[in-house]
Model the fold of this input.
Amino acid sequence: MARFVSLAAGAVLLFAGGAAFAQSAKLTDPQIAHIAYTAGVVDIAAANQALKKTSNPQVKAFAEDMVRDHTSVNDKALALCKELGVTPEDNDTSKSIAKQGEEERAKLESLSGAAFDKAYAENEVKYHHMVNTALENTLIPNASNPKLKSLLETGLKIFKGHEEHAKTLAASLK
Amino acid sequence: MTCRDAMFAALACGSIAAFASVADAAIVRVTISNIAYAPAKIAAHVGDTVEWDNKDFVVHTATARNGAWDVNLPAGKSGRVLLKKAGKIGYYCRFHPNMKGEIDVSAK
Done:
């Protein structure tokens, strides 16, 4: 029960401000890899939407950074999974992240110009904060394989950089 | 000491001094690994070159806060900057602003 509560707390942190989910068992490495990969895919999709919609050079540069970095991390994750013989496994958390990402993109699609830029930047702050919290409190502590853990730790540092960058961008758009 | 010896000594000293000034222009190396500059703080002299070696799998930059330089550092590549002015200069990575470094540049 105590374990369930702590995992549920992790789940709440994972989706602070978003859809709730309940992970009833300890996350496995194939699930963790899938969650981290999906989180990257969602941010790349958001960036691609921004690249289509924005005309602000700063927002465009930020979105390009997101596509480049998240693609690099995801490529590294896939290569590591291959090396370890791990097949990423879809799970409720991944599904929830993907769904929330779609919903956010649908919301942003209706905006344009400065309103879009501001909403995109603010969501990037929120999204990176959510993913970083999940990495720190749930995904990294639950990862068993040291190489996977190490890649997630490097990812966390990269994404903390994105969070800071997104905050500066969002503040400049006000 | 004969006149000739004195001349030789002076020439030798002169050439050593010239050699020393070239040798003084050092390359100070900073490694980027695991989303951090190491060492984060370095000391150098005007005329020295700082070389960043990016061992990460993502692109970084070394961007001077005062706008003096902005070095792009692709994954697995290195980049350099020649230090032209004395003073402390802070720098960071434009893509990951949580990466911070400082160079204390002293006059020659």
Q: What stands out?
A: Residues 35 and 93 of chain A are 7 Å apart (CA to CA). The helical segments of chain A are 2-14, 29-53, 57-84, 92-109, 113-142, 146-172. Residues 1-13, 16-22 of chain A have pLDDT under 50 and may be disordered.
